[in-house]
Amino acid sequence: MASSPRGARVSARRLCRSAILPLVVADVVLAVMVDSVQRGMGVFGVVGKLSGMGRSEAVERIGLNVPAITAGFLEAEYHKVEVVQQTGSTNTDLLDAVRGGEVDADLVALLAEEQTAGRGRLGRSWGAPPRSQIIMSVAAEVTGVHGDLLGLLPLLAGLAVRAALVEVLGQPAGPVVGLKWPNDVLLGGLKVGGILVELAQHRPVAVIGIGVNYDLLPEELPVEHATSLCLQPAGAMPTRTEVTLAIARHLAAELQRWRALGGAPEVVLPRYRLACVSLGADVRAGDTVGRAEDVARNGGLVVRTAAGPVTVVSGEVVHQFGVLGRAGCADG
Question: CDD domains of this UniProt entry (predicted)?
């Protein structure tokens, strides 16, 4: 039987209690919980705080509600969705399926509870405990979109993830959700998710990979400037299934509109410029150093250097420490 959102949230609260109570004696637990609630941390924030006080107990994480995922994706006009327990990389699997002719429809999604060889930009590898993240890849046809405009896809996907998080976290009351050019999603100034877009060879299909940290604890985070949804101050924590479905809905809607207009930059750029924390920050991209001042029509980042404007279309962009972008975020 499919569990209700309320039931899932109750299970999440029970999960937290079972995870934190063995850590310390009851009076310390009570003191920390009272202090944390007063600070507006929420129950998942309590778990994160307690985990730093002593040994971290194994957390029992809840799997995706597969019937709800299937129904929700089909309602959002995906042609197919599959959830697997474990794989090396959802992007690799879906790309191989596209190239091998196994995927012959638009909007086909592959979700995994765990990736053992997840890939980020510049060939970086990453992983996390099972059921601690949202891991999904979507194959989307890009017929009719000029090749020069495909660089807008990571920005478009970022807007979709941002809109989904704003929806499920109850913005604008919650932490600020921003986008760091070209593929990072930030929550409260820390990286909560990333996007990897890859094109299939010899076919007009893009595979959009999305990863979002859901309930990683502080000691499980890959880098110090990362976070997860559960570590941010919030009210009722949405379930992982609810977050996944919100991302799927917003991504499908963004793709349909953008492709219907031939990949028009006007669909993406005005909103992306407002959400992009890189704009206004001093940045470094390889040998290019200067202030990020705009996003070009092809999705590239326009950097004002001492020698004039330079458009960066790929590579690593680092925000210079001590300099804040328009959303007040300094990061690497």
Answer: BPL
